Amino acid sequence: MSHSTTNTYTLKREILSVSSKISFGLPKDDRKFAADMSYGILASGSCLLTDITDYLHEPAKKVNTVERLSRHLASGIPERMLANYLRTVKMMVPSAPIIHIDDSDVIKPEGQHFEALGYVRDGSASTKEKSVFQKDQLWVALLRPADQNSFDHRRPVSLFSEIHSSCEKQFSSINNITFSAIDRAVRLFGKATFAMDRGYDDNKIFHKLLDAGQNFVTRLTAKRKVFYHGKWIPI
To answer: Is-above-0.90 flag for pTM?
Structure first.
């Protein structure tokens, strides 16, 4: 039991050490929020504020702690905190890293009151013969450099993550969000190799990466043609 307790405190110190780097230079309330969320999410294994609160063991009433965390979340991530995080990420990966770009759908089939809910293609339910469109879904754009020590794509470090929906008033296009992710990577690393699935077989994205002087590799769709031995051939 003592050994288990020692491991718990060691892990907590490591979590709080990383949290202090991310929240460096911020007001005390923001530093506490970063520490509470970092530890609470990892300790509870949940993103629900009620679950996170249970592991904080604060003397205040649970509802008051939930309200405090909700208030901080509603105000968004401070720019300095994001800058600190990106600086920490840059130290964790090598120069000119391999960066994975991917989109994922968040399915809310029973949700009726989430903001900006729309319809998108359900990749899990769709087949080659038929595309299935589900309601109550959001898209998440992800940009993830491989970890320096393991280069294991199963343990990525998040560089860009944004929930968005085509039903939002300010929504322009998915490409613009992808471009924002690419711009962030270019500013941070200068040079990288972007790895993408066939959903990114798009001339606009190719030109964006080429204009920025980046390397990239992607799967191609069946409609793509290549110029080979003097003639165009379907891929």
So the answer is: no
